[in-house]
Amino acid sequence: MPTVLLVEDNLDDERLVRRTLEKNNVTNEIVVAITGQGALDALTEMERLGQRPDLVILDVKLPDMSGLRVLRDLRANPRTELVPVVVLTGNASPDDVASAYRLGANSVVLKPADFAEFSEALLHLTIYWLLVNRSTDMVTV
């Protein structure tokens, strides 16, 4: 089963993502980071163990650095440059959306305000990126 790196500082959103993925058996491991540096540290630890996430769900607004900076660092690393990254945001400006795509985001999703809609959107995007899409584990880096 695939591993998801969730980079989210909002505890309610983190719980909703975790509950949605676990309830629907989409993944067996969810690594959570609440800061950008925490995400980079988690990726370093995974790399040290010879692992990488199958999907990164990345919030744009993080307390210590922009999610876009985390995305830039992900794409600069040969081990994670091909890992699908879904950028989540509660209020994306057109500039943030454009920047996310320029930096290599695979998708930018606006977080619906309604929890049921948010949960459904999460389920659809994780099913697509983890089960339908060709996995990067088929690529040697």
Any low-confidence stretches, pLDDT <50, length ≥5? Answer: none
CATH class, named Alpha Beta
- β-sheet strand percentage: 15-25%
Major sheet size, sense and barrel closure: 5 strands, parallel
Q: What strand line-up does the widest sheet have?
A: 2-1-3-4-5
**Which assembly state applies to the chains in this document?**
single chain
Overall shape: globular
Helix segment tally: 5
Characterization of the model:
- This protein is α/β, with parallel strands linked by helices and 141 residues long.
- The chain has one domain: Rossmann fold.
- The protein is 45% helix and 17% strand.
- The protein has five helices and five strands; from the N terminus they run βαβαβαβαβα.
- Strands 2-1-3-4-5 form a five-stranded parallel sheet, with helices on both faces.
- Strand 4, helix 4 and strand 5 (107-110) form a beta-alpha-beta unit.
- The radius of gyration is 14 Å and the shape is globular.
- The model has no long low-confidence stretch (mean pLDDT 90).
